[in-house]
Every structure is written in structure tokens, then in C-alpha cells.
Amino acid sequence: MTTSNGFLNGRVALVTGGSRGIGAATALRLAREGADVALTYVNDKSAAEDVVRSVEALGRRAVALRADSADAEEAAGAVARTAEAFGGRLDVLVNNVGVGLLGPLENLSLADVDRVLAVNVRGVFLTSQAAASRMGPGGRIITVGTCMTQRVPGPGGTLYAMSKSALTGLTKALARELGGRGITANIVHPGPIDTDMNPADGPFAAGQAGMTAFGRFGRAEEVASTVAHLAGADYVTGAEFSVDGGHAA
Ligand SMILES: NC(=O)c1ccc[n+]([C@@H]2O[C@H](COP(=O)([O-])OP(=O)(O)OC[C@H]3O[C@@H](n4cnc5c(N)ncnc54)[C@H](OP(=O)(O)O)[C@@H]3O)[C@@H](O)[C@H]2O)c1
What UniProt keywords are attached to this protein's entry (predicted)? Predict the structure, then answer.
């Protein structure tokens, strides 16, 4: 379902990790609903620029920002750079960026732990903190978690599930802290979604698909539509939404 009624007209959104996968689909969906969009990336400039051109083709403004979420200054700085690009405002933050490092507990190094926590937790905290300081009433913070915070289907997920579970606590606490200013915070938990991180033809795909009620991977656009809904929702905060094809059922 990709029809638009322009309910985000005049809003400015920042989507972290918006050059591919769920982030790219979200950037496009928010633009289709009327938002101007900044997106961050770290490696693939040309993919980020492709998303910018696609947003512009929808008649919205877009900017690609190279900002490594593992770097504290860059994670927070993306917010100021977004505001600079779009007249000083930020209305919607989508904390999409995440790294999906899976592996046996005994194989995970200290460097792995630090890297995953820096991107999946510290970066999300710092970007959210910076965004909250800019947002006015109507601000929206939407974070991308994972179905593995609700059901861990097998071994290998300790670090990833731990990191993403922190985001549920962050979301609920942000909802309480920012509610009085008219800012909402919610979290979306995707199931297996066909992206570069987790391709639907990858070696572990059949097992993941089989754990959903539909027996298939989801599409990035199916996550993006829920994110867009939350960007426009007024009386929803501190909530968790599964977009997982029944993975947690
Ligand atoms: N796919 C799934 O099955 C699934 C399921 C549950 C949850 N999720 C979550 O959904 C989110 C998006 O996943 P995805 O599957 O769309 O991932 P993806 O295909 O790997 O895309 C990741 C995006 O994040 C950017 N990125 C990676 N590291 C970054 C960093 N340190 N700083 C800034 N940007 C960075 C990438 O940009 P570059 O190209 O420049 O690196 C890219 O735009 C993640 O939080 C993931 O944990 C995914």
C-alpha cells in the first residue's frame, strides 16, 4: 500500500542508515507522504545519492550525510547537519541504523561487543538525544529494533539481541521523558526482511521464513509503511510494533 495523502507535508525527517534496505525504503516512504529527508550512510556514497535522486523525483528535498553512527560526534552531529540543510528544523527521527553481528558466544571478541554497542546502542542514544533537543511539539522518534528482542529462534544472537533490547528501554523512557513536550517515541521490530543484511536467498533464509506465519520474508517497504504511520500518529507513544509476519506469535 503506497498511496499518499501528504500527511507529512512540510516535515523534515532524518533516517539513519538510509542508503539501502529498510532505511532507503523508509526515506522514500516518508518523502512520498510529503517529508523532506536527510539520510546517513557510511560506506556506499553512490547508493545514498541514488536514494537522494529518488526522493527528489518525488518532488521533495533530500540530502545524503556521511555520518558513522559508531562515532559519537558523527552520530549526534547528523542532527545538526539535517537542521542546517532544511531551515533549522527536525520533526521525525528514524533510528534505523544497525549492524547485525551474529555468532557463537565464545567467538565474539571485545572489539565485536564494542562495535555493535557503539552503533546499535550508543549511536542511537546520542542521535536521539540531539534530536530531542531540536524537536518541537509533534516530534517523532521511531527506532528500528528486531523480532529477536521478542523471540530468539536459535543460537548466535546474544550480542545482537542484547543490543537491540536496549532500544526498547530507551524508547519507553524517551516516551515518558518527552511526552510532556508532545514528542512521541516508538519502536518497530522487523522480522526477516529481504535486504543486503539478510537476503531472502541467504544460507539461513529458509529457516527464518519458516518461523513466520506467512512462510516468507518481508519487504523493506512493509516495515517502512509502519514507520510512516507512526510518523503521523499523535496518540501513540512508548509502544512496540512487530512487523514480523508472525515471527513472535
Ligand atoms: N533485514 C532484516 O532481516 C532485519 C530484521 C530485523 C531488524 N533489522 C534492523 O533493521 C535495520 C536496517 O537493516 P537492513 O537490513 O536494512 O540493513 P542493511 O541492508 O545492512 O543496510 C544498512 C544501512 O545502514 C547503513 N550503515 C551501516 N553501518 C552504519 C554506520 N556505522 N553509520 C551509518 N550508517 C551505517 C548502511 O550504509 P552503507 O551502505 O554506507 O554501509 C545502510 O544504509 C537495522 O537496524 C537492522 O538491525 C533488520
Answer: Oxidoreductase
